[in-house]
Design brief:
mainly alpha; 3-stranded antiparallel β-sheet; 7 helices; about 50% helix; disordered N terminus
Length: about 170
């Protein structure tokens, strides 16, 4: 979650960190939209379609080797070899941790940036003449605390510098 140090602290070498909740929500949404048959399993065709539609402009778009490598990693997350929601999320996160500048990290960062852009911020009068902030999302509704995905994307923008743009993500890898 925002403000937590999830990289390295209290972790043994090779041990994965917990998936941040906002990344998990994104993975669940991506899995749901790609499981066309509703079987609860992601086929190679489902994964290829998802990447063709959602990973445009990244190394994963149309790259058979990268897609096969990702599919193999995802399937290796379970003893049954099937890619279900848990394996999908865990595999994507392990790929990001293994290569923070790699193709999967690039794709998921773009997805998170797109999700952050869907939030609007409004100020409204609060008691005592102060102003309070409300965050509004087309499907999640209104919340008063800044969503974790916005906090994370603001942190990324600060790390990249004020002039960072979406195109910087696809050219950085």
């Amino acid at each position: 979650m925002a403000g937590e140090n999830t990289r390295g602290a209290g972790r043994r070498r090779g041990e994965a960190t917990a998936i941040p909740p906002y990344v998990r929500e994104l993975c669940d949404a991506l899995f749901a939209m790609s499981d066309v048959s509703g079987s609860g399993q992601l086929t190679t065709i489902d994964l290829t379609r998802l990447l063709a539609k959602r990973a445009k402009g990244t190394v994963l778009e149309g790259n058979a080797h990268a897609i096969f490598a990702l599919r193999t990693l995802l399937a290796s997350q379970a003893s049954h070899g099937e890619i279900r929601g848990e394996e999908f999320a865990t595999g994507l996160w392990k790929s990001i941790e293994a290569d923070p500048n790699g193709a999967v990290a690039q794709w998921i960062l773009l997805e998170l940036m797109e999700e952050a852009e869907r939030w609007d911020q409004y100020e409204y009068p609060a008691p005592g003449g102060a102003h309070a902030v409300l965050y509004r999302h087309p499907t999640a509704g209104d919340v008063r605390e800044k969503p974790a995905v916005l906090v994370a994307m603001e942190r990324c923008a600060a790390l990249l510098g004020e002039g960072a743009r979406r195109s910087d993500v696809t050219t950085a890898v």
